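Much of what follows relies on a compact textual record of a protein's fold. Each token is a code from a learned vocabulary of local backbone shapes. The record below shows the convention in full.
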Amino acid sequence: VKSNFPVAGAAVPPGQPTPPTKFTDVFGKTSSITPGYRYDSRNDPFDPNGGHRFYMTTQVAGTYFGGTTDFLKPLVGGSIYLPVNLPRHAYLALNGEVGYVRPYGGQGVPIFERFQLGGEQSLRGFAAGSVLPLDKEQRVFTDPEGHILGGNKYFVFNAEYVFAQVGPAKLLAFGDFGNAFHESQNFGLTGLRSSVGMELRIFLPIFQAPLRFIYSFNLSPKTPIDQFGFPINSLKDKKRGFDFSIGRTF
């Protein structure tokens, strides 16, 4: 693994501009096996509107497999598609997932195995990887080298109300909720990251995945700060905006 992670900058004298975020490379090797179970009764693997699915996996990584990291990473999730009477052919889609990573063998959680949320595959309206653990003052967590840390646990909940369909195009309203948490934090709704919005989804068989035009509103935009009190503009939430993507949220 070669990963690039932001480093919180050093303190600067009062009145000076906020220093730019720096990035450094982190190296390692993950070698693992991931047993899992999946049940899927959805009526279409690419564009479902009925049925449900459930999955659980546990990644087991260890130096005895030839890697440099020792950790367990269980993930549990599921989704369900429910018909709605108004309007005709409408349906409600719900999805939830929870993840946790725990080191063993005397090591900490590898920084590149921590959870960072955001993006059209998890929390729409947030930049990919921008949802990180924050303390009560909106301060990020860092390691001794100053790297900004993702969480050792997370949860995500997505809801979609698909209310219009014309040929391959669907119009839906959505709400996404979730967060990532540091080891010193418990699961909870404090500091919940959330967005709502509308999405136009066009399914083209040639892609085997929908084209997505998303307009979202952030319900509680935040500007994370580093350990010196400076805002981290690269992680700043936008209040609203348009995004384009290919694929599904769940």
